Each structure stands twice: as C-alpha cells, then as structure tokens.
Amino acid sequence: SEIQKALAGIISKFDDIEISNALISIMKVETFSDFSMSRVYVSVFGDEAKKKAVVAKLNENKKTIRYELAHKVKMRAVPELVFIIDDVEEKAERIMKLFEQIEGESSDAK
Q1: How far is CA 47 from CA 10, 52, 85, 94, in A?
Q2: Where are the alpha helices (DSSP H) in the chain?
Q3: Cys bridge to 78: 15, 29, 70, 107, which one at CB 3.0-4.6 A?
Q4: What string of pLDDT tens digits covers the 110 residues of the chain?
Q5: 19, 70, 66, 71: which is closest to 45 by C-alpha?
Q6: Is 82 helix (H, G, I), strand (E, B) or coil?
Q7: CA gyration radius, the chain
Q8: What is this structure's pTM?
Q9: What CA–CA distance (Å, rounded) separates 32 from 46?
Q10: DSSP state, 76?
Q11: Do the beta carbons of residue 58 and residue 11 sit within 8 Å?
Q12: Rounded Cα–Cα distance for residues 110 and 108 (Å)
C-alpha cells in the first residue's frame, strides 16, 4: 500500500539510534475504513527485548512519523499510527517444528 511504502522510507531515514540501528520491515498496514487509525505490523531482526524496544521507540515517535507521512501520501486525513510487532513468521516456525515433532513421533511408533 502507499502508506506501507511511505512508512518504510520514513523509518529507514529516522534520526533515532534505536530505530536507525535496527533492521525493520513493514510487514502489513491495516487502516480502518474511516482512516482514523492504521495498525502497522513491523518485523524487527533481533531478540525479543530488541523487538520490544524498537516498537516502543516507534510508538513514542508516532506523531513525528505521522507528520512525515502526511507530507508523503495524498490523503484527506492521515490516520493515527499504532506500531505492533509482527510475529507471524515466528508462529509459523513454531508450527513447522510441531509438525516435524509429530512426524518424528509417528515414524518412531511404526
């Protein structure tokens, strides 16, 4: 989406050590139909503490990021932003490990 692309550019140039030193990907942006709010799902490379710290910094700076976004996208109203850790890949990895474990147990039972 246009918001997703614009946010990726804004965050990549953001002047905050916690954010600029992190590998951040905007995975998905869900915008309410009335454009009042957007949930921004981000993937952050690193351990859980690093992920939480980066998302906290993004949320602390969301007014500045929203201001930058208003200059990059052509929208009547720019939504409020809420940054959320996207853990879909981690959940998928856990599910795959469970499948492998079940498969290993079923082959041991034969």
Answers
A1: 23, 9, 12, 16
A2: 2-12, 17-20, 48-60, 62-72, 88-108
A3: 70
A4: 899 999 999 999 888 878 878 889 999 999 999 999 999 999 998 888 999 999 999 999 999 999 999 999 988 889 999 999 998 777 777 788 888 888 877 776 66
A5: 19
A6: strand
A7: 18
A8: 0.79
A9: 30
A10: S
A11: yes
A12: 6
Contact 1, 35 (CB under 8 A): no
Dmax (CA) for the chain in angstroms is 64
Q: Which two tokens stand for residue 12?
A: 């990549």
Q: What are phi and psi of 80, to 5 degrees?
A: -65, 150
* Structure-token pair, residue 66: 């929203």
CA atoms of 92 and 7, how far apart (whole Å) = 25
Q: Which two tokens stand for residue 109?
A: 């039972």
